[in-house]
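pipeline stage [seq->struct] | target=Circularly permuted type 2 ATP-grasp protein | organism=Novosphingobium pituita | residues=477
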Amino acid sequence: MTKSSLSSYDEMLEADGSTRAAYSGYCEWLKEQPPELLRRKSGEAEAFFRKTGITFNVYGSEDAEERLIPFDMVPRIISAAQWRRLSKGIEQRVRALNAFLHDLYHRQEIVRAGRLPERVLKGNSAFLPQMAGFTPPGGVYTHIVGIDLVRTGEDEFMVLEDNARTPSGVSYMLENRETMMAMFPELFTKVRVREVSDYPRRLARSLAACAPPAASGHKPVVAVLTPGTFNSAYYEHAFLADQMGAELVEGSDLRVENGRVAMRTTRGWQAIDVLYRRVDDDYLDPLTFKPESVLGVSGIMDVYRAGGITIANAPGTGIADDKAIYSFMPEIVEFYTGEKPILANVPTWRCSEADSLAYVLDNLADLVVKEVHGSGGYGMLIGPTSSRREIAMFAEKLRANPDNYIAQPTLSLSTVPIFTKAGLAPRHVDLRPFVLVSPQGIDITPGGLTRVALKKGSLVVNSSQGGGTKDSWVLDD
């Protein structure tokens, strides 16, 4: 493979084409492999994913088809020293997020201090008045967090997004590793990589440590609440429940009984202590939120506020996913930790501000514009890859509803090679490390989910937009 002509930082190769230290063991192994073996293994990986049923649904497509998320065999490798630095920044940010959420639902000291404008909270649909004055068991709001990172240089990692509501993708992280170990067992004897397969056990332990007062005196009962088989991430819900040894439940399996939330079992109704919910706030409780919801359980919010159950993640955490809030994260981190942020934000223009809106409208062709509550790569404009007509149409949407958008520069994301018919070729990547939070501490899984843009030159890594995934390796010391 030759050095990419792209100006992006190549994580595998130096500017002169030599191999970076983190990839040396892998590249030595790769040179010994015949090309036909790698082609055959690539086909085997796809067959394995289809057989296992590792698919996701695409909302908005005509037939709501199930798709296979493409898997690439070339791992994304991070050195032990680099991971240590990253972990410090991730832990600092997660601590700040939890402190921020507690403050938002109590005294709002950050607003009183003038560090966060009240307007970003006023009328914000992700802010839940029902959580005001209430502290979740153990003081934990974000039990599972996904921090999306992008890399632009050797030591230049930036946070692209915070996922504090219901971060997804951890099942792909686990299956990617299992697939790599099954296909190339000898590679893992040559290169020492930190384990990720114990994530479900660590998740179960972390959730149990967040059990409410009502759980004292017995081993906490944990269940996973899914919207059902038609949800895009249903595979992951079922996978995690199975791996944790927890029950997978739907709203119809639950009811409030004697001040507890109980699930239907073959032995009758059993009280749940911790509910890992993969259902959005609006659908959790028809008595509190959307009356027409059949996905949650009537009265669960009353039980929650009375200390009868832990809901993970806590209702109302979605405010931290808001991209307008994201733009204030450097101030948020400093306000609650007393420290400068270790991980930088991507520079962000808030279109709700007149000067920023004027700049964004003048420079749409060079910027990435996102919806404040958007996710999955939907509803966004990537200026450099858009036509004049698309830019003009988007400008009209911006003028009509500027509060709904933020804008960022088009970053030169780092690249990692993928396996193609013509050999290895560089593609842009991001990284979503997964973080567990409990009263016992913050636990960061080494690595995470690497998403890769499979189209040459593309910066969009989301699976819903044609991206794929890779195994993420953190080297052992």
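stage status: PASS
auto-comment: The chain has a mean pLDDT of 90. The longest strand covers residues 144-153.
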